[in-house]
Amino acid sequence: MENPEVDAAMATPDATPDSTVEGSQSSVTFVKSQEQEKEQDKEKEQDKEKKNKQDEDQESIISSLLSHLEPGGGSPRTPKRVLAFVRVKPSAHFAQDIIKLGSDNKSIDIYIQKSPKGGIVNNSQTDWSFRLDGLLHNASQEMVYETVAKDLVSKALQGYNGTIMCYGQTGAGKTYTMTGAASEYRDRGIIPRAIQQVFKSAAEFLNILVSVRISYLEIYNEALFDLLAPALGRGCKDAQLAVMDGPRGVYVKGLSIHPVSHEEEALHLLFEARGPKYSRESRGCGRWPREEAEKREGETNRVIAEHSLNKNSSRSHCIFTMYIECRSRDYTNHKCLKSKITLIDLAGSERLSKTGSEGQVRVEASYINKSLSFLEQLVIALADPKREHIPFRQSKLTHVLKDSLGGNCNTVLVTNIYGEAEHVEETLSSLRFATRMNWVTAEPAPNEPFFRETSVKALEEEIQLLKRELIMHDTLANRSSTSYTPLTTTQRAEIRSQVQKYLRGVIEEIDIVNVRQIQEVFRQFKVIVSQQEEEVENRLWSKYGLGHRDVASESDLSSDLHLAEAQAEEKQEGKGRTVEKDEDLGQDSNQGTLETGSFPTSLVPDGKKGAKEEDVKEKSESPPSDPIRDGSSPSQSPTKDLDEEEEGGDQDSDEEASVTSSEDSQFRSPPSKKEAFELFKKEAGREISRIFRENRTILLSRKKRSHSVAQRINHLKQQTEGVREALEAQKRKRSQEGEYVDEKGRVIIDEKEFSLIRKLKELKEEHRAGFAELQDLKAEIQYCQQLVDKCRKRLISEFEIWYKESFLIPEDVREALRPGGNIRPGMIPLNRITCLDEDEQERFERLQETALPDCPGSVSFYRARMKTDRRQSFSRTVAALRKMCRKPGTVSANGKKKAPSFLPIT
Ligand SMILES: Nc1ncnc2c1ncn2[C@@H]1O[C@H](COP(=O)(O)OP(=O)(O)OP(=O)(O)O)[C@@H](O)[C@H]1O
């Protein structure tokens, strides 16, 4: 028992002292006497003993289920009603005259004054009475869990499916009940507590091995989303998700299900599901304003929106499922008991007039209300024993819940209501729903233990049967020689040789034999193509003197890129030749994500002056130095000598002057990106810049050659046309003048015509050769273009990192990053920076000191929370860095002792 939690809930200022039920709770103020404390200790001891006993019982129940020949013990099923609880949201304005909570903690009466608008004869009903399975008023999260979920979860370990669903008006506390507040351990909701209970029980079982998998589905505007989708270029709509009816019940095709081996892992997935995997936009639900999007980045995965009743209103239904499998640890029998716990947080019903929703939020609301009304229709049908057709397929939500409501499942509904008078109408309709749900009956029974060996055997038999059918079919179709066994090595080699012969033109066709053979033929084609590709690449690579091909580094190039900078680079590089203006460069850069215009110009951080010639020389021979490790500033201004050495006088003199003059200043703001980029090309990015330039030169020369070959071909074409016309004229002349023939009747042509024919032939050959050369050149150009693009991307991405490290990370952070660590020169992973963000670690340590001694069970919760916080901090830092690029003058390159706001400190 976590008593502090209960005490705190009792002491909440939201308590409503006058209402019957909570009057007896909230007015309790007690000073613990020693005796009371002793009694509590004793109770705790007894609780512990009772729990141990229960665990033992549970294990023996599972064992007996696994060893029973007849699943479920063959006992008759006893119909059971769905349990319905009501949770009242704490309020300082509890409408005690309108809402009366029964002293039995099970009934709730609503009294509404007759409306004066009803006229003299006013028959509208004014009193309602509801009787449910329990009222949760001013109840702590722990109490709620103990009441509604604990038993259901332990039953799930015994093979019973279980469903808990939170229903209610928007803002009434469904998400708080189901997931809870993520910041405080004691405020965690049903899902984290259920995870904890399952793993805790599993750890205590001696002979039973429990494996757990989880999935998290979201239904938003009648579309399905996987909240745990494994790196989907995450953020894509899961078009492939679909609700299907299978032989073992309903399932969602394409939904990822994640095995989890301990509590922390499961909690981490739960918290991460609230990470920035999806953007609102990617679900087609409209774009957040930019400020809002930045605020939300790293906060929530589930679609939320703000309206007058809830700042973080969930706009979707979420279904968290735990799939549990129990089997005997020593494998004495091969049965396995499967069950699932389905935890549903529905989106809140809302009256548009009350929430004042507009635009997209209004559209969402209409989807929500529609799907909730389908749910209500379903519940009405389920509650009516005479109904033959149950409308499960009316909406995605009702379809998904087909085997989770009633049926053979333990089902619990928590209806969340407000206690205020202004919401009494919605409260009434929520209570009506609860009552209807309470009428639904279920016949819970443990799922049939699944016998692995038996099912494997059944499948093998099925395969044998199908093979026999196939043989019979082949015999009837006169194809008796076909074999369906997997290919042997010799058969594979035979197919490979056939493919090679086919490619060489030795054989015209490859005979089709069966599916395996066709697949092998394709596989061999693929192998040959990729071998050839590699060969060609290697040849070109060495031809252009790029040294050994480093496949790993090629893949590095796919980092975050900014095309505009690349164009700027290209223009800058081409300056010597095409004489382009600096303004063009600036404009181009501004079109991309990088905004060069926003920083003060000609600014270089201090401490960079006086680079000696030896240093420069050293640098020119060694790979780009790590500015952090060696202590020198990365943006050290190049000397004039270096400019000359590097650019061979190719540099614009104006620019040189501006860079050189910047040396003299002591600056507090980072230099403009344009300037920094020039600097980078001369220092840290010198090597990649050189390769880029070389590749581009080769590309240009190939383009030039291709151009001249094309011109030559055109010229040849014109010449050919001329000769062809002359030849035609000659032929016409010959036929007009009369033709000479020899004794064999062959036409005799004169010398001029003969030379024209010869010339035509030569021209055609030349044309063909030119055309072939042009084709080769095109292939080369394409390849060179790719190389240039790759180099450009690399140059920019490395520059981006270098720039952030050199100018946007304050000196003290750089200082802290310096010792130890595996940091590649010029590449400080940003997550290293966020690791420095001591707040998470410190907070955890603080919690360990304070909270953990009372609740040792909270370790997993806080660890998982911390992991998620770190990831979110990282996202926020990156977002903040991006933002800084847009806002001029917000960060100084040095001189700040305190971490700036982009390193989040909470
Ligand atoms: N029992 C409670 N104790 C303390 N705070 C609560 C309680 N119930 C709800 N809240 C608070 O009320 C606010 C709204 O709750 P919540 O988001 O859970 O509502 P909801 O029913 O899920 O709303 P929606 O349907 O719009 O998503 C939250 O800030 C939550 O922390």
UniProtKB/TrEMBL annotation:
Protein residues bound to ATP: G168, Q169, T170, G171, A172, G173, K174, T175
Biased composition (Basic and acidic residues): 34-55, 568-580, 606-621
Biased composition (Low complexity): 7-18
Residue spans of biased composition, Polar residues class: 19-31, 587-601, 658-669
Coiled coil region boundaries: 757-794
Subunit structure: Interacts with HYDIN.
Name this protein carries in UniProt: Kinesin-like protein
Organism: Hirundo rustica rustica
